[in-house]
Specification:
Layout: E1 8-10, E2 19-24, E3 33-37, E4 40-43, E5 52-55, E6 73-79, E7 85-90, E8 95-96, E9 101-104, E10 110-112, E11 118-123, E12 127-128, E13 135-147
Antiparallel strand pairs: 1-7, 2-6, 3-4, 3-5, 5-6, 7-13, 8-12, 9-10, 9-11, 11-13
Length: 148
């Protein structure tokens, strides 16, 4: 069972997040970080830099946050804006502490940043993922992304 049931976490006083649509050749779960390449979305990886997006739940098909978008489908992803909160995927076995710098692993999930990795977000909560599956953790995008 998911810890959260929505990907966008607020604030409610601002305009809803900017969303973009594009084909994604791989099946992706909501909360996964993606980048745009050749007009398509691809899972972000450790070397991904520049504009990043976070996959939204497939509300168009009434799917939940643990239902993957099918491979080859047109997916909806949101701009990672630093003034908005999001729920991002953290792999199982990963411990996150509040305010920790986070980078993207090879599967588009957020992990604690290490020296020389690209910081894309900061954790808004502490969570030790011992659940046995990827979980959603509240984060805010880093301003202007930087190296750890």
């Amino acid at each position: 069972m998911p810890r959260y049931n929505k990907i966008f976490g607020g604030p409610v006083s601002e305009t809803l997040p900017q969303v973009h649509e594009a084909i994604c050749d791989a099946a992706v779960l909501p909360g996964t970080v993606v980048a745009r390449s050749g007009g398509k979305f691809v899972q972000a990886g450790t070397s991904s830099k520049g504009r990043l997006f976070i996959v939204q739940d497939n509300y168009l098909a009434l799917k939940g946050v643990d239902d993957a978008w099918p491979a080859g489908d047109r997916i909806v992803a949101m701009d990672l804006l630093d003034e908005q909160a999001f729920r991002a995927r953290v792999p199982t076995g990963t411990s996150i502490v509040q305010d920790a710098a986070l980078s993207v692993n090879a599967a588009g999930k957020l992990v604690p940043a290490t020296s020389g990795t690209w910081v894309v977000a900061f954790a808004s909560e502490t969570f030790n993922n011992t659940t046995g599956s990827d979980q959603l953790v509240s984060v805010r995008a880093a301003k202007g992304y930087a190296f750890a």
